């Protein structure tokens, strides 16, 4: 059954069905920070019966960035010849020492600029030829093509004072790492609409084909998510596992080939560390040798550490679906959006921030 978008009569029928569904216990993981926020904001959890559970996965790019990498960035920004450019969410993410962040270093005089895209960072480089401008490349397959275009543009214009610290990551290796771990306890997935727009349905087929997990790609309106939950329940009821696309208005089977091509031209898979998960082989996007002059790591000879650090923050457990944000001992006591201990409370897509804003009692 394919529902028409915003067919409210059908949506209300589905809500009734879900509310009264009591046959099977189903844990559903959403793997997109925008879904996390939409679920919290719309109160979808309040209509779920006890046997249906929604948990957040590694879908917030800032939240999965390793503390080790944050520390490396904080060291870099102390170079007086460097302007760090970044999305606003990264500003308050603390490193491992004294909750030091880009924001605190900026207040002490470090050059840190908020940008809305990698191209904005490139413009800053053009306007500041006496400085090295470093863009922190954050995000999954959704934002990586934009970074790749900026790198290509820098090369085409022969701009020498621009580089990218690539923290970009591929979604699939992380999901495989979780699915292959013994303590992972999730039955089904709501797949990310944005990443699916780039990778297409085929990018998430492995969830059902190889791991037998019912999965639905969907959009970000509450009704999109409700339909996805319904579709997942129906797969359990009919005893099959497939990937379904409920985001027909955006997602195709093949995805965005142009975006995939530019991303693959500039980036290649490299080993990388993820917060709370550790090293995942071939999960990071490294800048290919043909663009190495735009690779911050090579330009400034940074020796990347592949050992993740531990702190009191439980973001790792949260993004693995092992802990609800409000089960963290620091939640809303020591850790809040004004005074965050970890990135899940900083990011506008973080699970802890979503709980704090909409589900705190
Ligand atoms: Fe980390 Fe704060 Fe979330 Fe606890 S509440 S997991 S300390 S971000």
Name a few traits of the molecule.
single chain, 361 residues, alpha/beta, Rossmann fold, 2 domains, five-stranded parallel beta sheet, four-stranded parallel beta sheet, 16 helices, 11 strands, 38% helix, binds iron/sulfur cluster, HypD_1, iron ion binding
Average pLDDT, all residues: 94
Shape: globular
Strand content: 15-25%
Which hetero ligands occur in this complex?
iron/sulfur cluster
Strand line-up of the largest beta sheet: 2-1-7-8-9
CATH topology of the largest domain, by name, is Rossmann fold
Helix content: 25-40%
N-to-C series of helices and strands = HEHEHHEHEHEHEHEHHEHEHEEHHHH
Distance between the termini: 38 Å
- Helix and strand composition category: alpha/beta
- The unreliable regions are none
CATH level-four homologous superfamily name of the largest domain: HypD, alpha/beta domain 2
CATH level-1 class of the largest domain:
Alpha Beta
Record field, number of beta strands? 11
The CATH architecture of the largest domain: 3-Layer(aba) Sandwich
Q: How many strands, which pairing sense, and closed or not: the largest β-sheet? A: 5 strands, parallel
- The total number of structural domains is 2
Radius of gyration: 21 Å
**Distinct helical segment count:** 16
